[in-house]
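Supplementary notes for students who missed Thursday's class. We covered one full example, reproduced here. Read the sequence, then the structure, then the short commentary at the end.
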Amino acid sequence: MAKYRILALDGGGVRGVLTAVLMDRIDKACPGWRGSVDLIAGTSTGGLLALGLGRGAAPSDLVGFYTGAGPGIFKDTLLDRIKDVGGLVGAPFKSETLEGVLKKLLGKTTRLRDLHPLIVVPAFDLDDTYRFDDGVKSRRINTWKPKIFHNDASLGGENNDGAELAYKVGMRTSAAPTYFPTYGSFIDGGVFANNPSMIALAQALATRAENKPRLEDLVLLNLGTGVHETVIKGSNHDWGGAQWMPNIVDLVLDGSMGVAKFECAQLLGERYCRLSPYLEQRVPMDSPELVPQLIRIARRLDLSRTVEWVKKEWMEG
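Structure (token representation):
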């Protein structure tokens, strides 16, 4: 059977500009490679990139999204800091600016079913009801749970999100706790899948389309938003909420990425490739002033191994 090609894009706030620049460079080195992609998955900032690509934006256009809109999205005024007590009782950034930017990028009326190819975007619903079966009895319960938005038309009824507005899906996947308010009842999908590779793989296998792929048909390129040295020094930390809070969001967002990498590498072998640049310093997700530096890093990065993989595993056959 023909190869089934998946592009998976990590979360990471403004570090998503790394992903956009890297895709632009791969475009130049491997013309036409994205034209054969079957599924694009993205979480948080990666979800915004996936939605933008699905609507036809080029990676170079998406670089402009970060350079142009980043400072406005992550703008925290003195009045806001006073109102939310420096972020202790309220999110430092408001949703309205990001929502306006996404309406321009994705369109006010664009729905997931209007995007191409298959788009997969994780978010997390804090207030939902679903059918639970504990092996004894099936019942409906109220609980928070992951939500995977997608536009796979082969999965009908409540299993298809084609009618969802694209910009609203973007808002849901990028509502990072402690940074932005919830969007409705949704928060950032990065709390459980900052690297969406395994979700993408599972969604590809779940399709009911006539050309349903097998595991051995899948080829997956996973682009990250950079890795920096991170450690909590010492041992035996007898900490409470106040001590953990400065680190807990990064722990949650970073913790799932290595797991997905390991799982995909074991399942796909050489058909899985992950690229995530090394960063010499920590780059917070809300630091648009560092975007020019991130662009320079992405432009200077040696892509020879990734380009070789794309040509061999992605484009051949």
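Commentary. The first strand starts at residue 4 and ends at 9. The two ends are 10 Å apart (CA to CA). If anything here is unclear, bring it to office hours.
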